[in-house]
Amino acid sequence: MTTMTTRVSPEWLALREPVDAASRAADLAETIRQNLDDVRPVVVHDLGCGTGSMARWLAPRLPGPQLWVMYDQDPMLLRHAAAALPARAGDGSAIAVQTRQRDVSKLSEEELAGASLVTASALLDVLTADEVERIVDTCVRARCATLLTLSVIGRVELTPADPLDAEIAAAFNAHQRRMTERGRLLGPSATPMTVALFEHAGAEVVVRPSVWRLGGAETDLLIEWFAGWVGAACEQRPELTLTTADYVGRRLAEAAAGSLRVEIHHEDVLAWPR
Question: For the chain, which domains are there?
């Protein structure tokens, strides 16, 4: 996901895409399929699309002809997303694509006119409360279903356990809630706030777990995630840099040997008008 000043590399997005796909709640996609079974064409607005992993996961699961409107701040990622979109839905129907270079927190109801579904992946937790309120309000006013996947909830489990795990996790979660020039980020508070906003607006809401499970088969992703996890924690609390050198060395050795297992917990949210 990229939005506002956040930038994510295509290499990182490619590395995480298979695990993202395996982690998203497939039953929510089935619920969407059933509710859109008579809609032709299905018009999906994908916010912070990155390289288009959401479309590659969801489009084959939806019926009939589709139009995907892809939003991102990064024009390079938009070009990648458009080029890599599946050409056909699961039933063989055609899929078309449009791209829009936008700050997705400032979308208007008019831009979502005619939308059947709004989607996003790994977006909510990098937004502020005001930005989430605007997105929810826009989706509610557009009266379309909304699927928001892979939002972190602040829970990470490493096996084997280490006494420093909890301290790093707490510092990382504080970093996720840090103050920025846009305001304070929601981090792990994003999902409950989003659910409350949709419910207050009268929407039906379903929440499902979506857990990254990393081990020996995902060593490259595990090492990249771990480096980013510890790096963010040390950015939040610089003194940790002096106390975690041995910890980092042990963990990287375990990852390289295939003996480290990590579960990073997220949640998926599906909301639709009553």
Answer: 10-153+181-213+265-272 (3.40.50.150)
